[in-house]
Amino acid sequence: MAKRSKGTGFQSAAGLIRYFEEEKSKGPKLDPKLVVYMAVIFAVIVELALRFWPTA
Description:
There is one protein chain. The chain has one domain (8-52). 70% of the residues lie in helices and 0% in strands. It has 2 helices and no strands. The radius of gyration is 25 Å and the shape is elongated. The relative contact order is 0.06. The model has no long low-confidence stretch (mean pLDDT 75).
């Protein structure tokens, strides 16, 4: 039977930690409430545009 290495679990966990640390550092930091407010405002603008400038 093959011998088991005791260090393999730590190496794989260290790779995941490094991956998630890199993922956190990229991109803008936005508050979730701001994203929801922007979506609501955009939807209102689209609805108003459809009412004032009908296409059909």
